[in-house]
Q: What sequence folds into this?
């Protein structure tokens, strides 16, 4: 797979770093990934809340939903 100009530039810059700085960079990359995942969950939660409101079941608590799911799984 051919590297883009940006990928080559990033790799060149990384190669200039000390091992300690590379570890810091990897930690920062992990932080960015986690922040992005958190944002995805926030967006999902907003979607779920809007769907619950639209369907008229936003009054249910998590406990209510758990009971409904448990009852469904038991075939009641």
A:
């Amino acid at each position: 797979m051919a590297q883009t100009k940006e990928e080559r530039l990033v790799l060149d810059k990384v190669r200039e770093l000390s091992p300690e700085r590379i570890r810091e960079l990897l930690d920062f990359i992990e932080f960015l990934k986690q922040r992005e995942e958190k944002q995805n969950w926030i967006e999902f939660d907003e979607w779920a809340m809007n769907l619950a409101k639209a369907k008229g079941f936003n009054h249910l608590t998590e406990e209510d939903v758990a009971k409904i799911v448990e009852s469904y799984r038991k075939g009641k």
Observations:
- Residues 7 and 13 are 10 Å apart (CA to CA).
- The chain has three helices and no strands.
- Residues 18-73 form one domain.
- The longest helix spans residues 19-55.
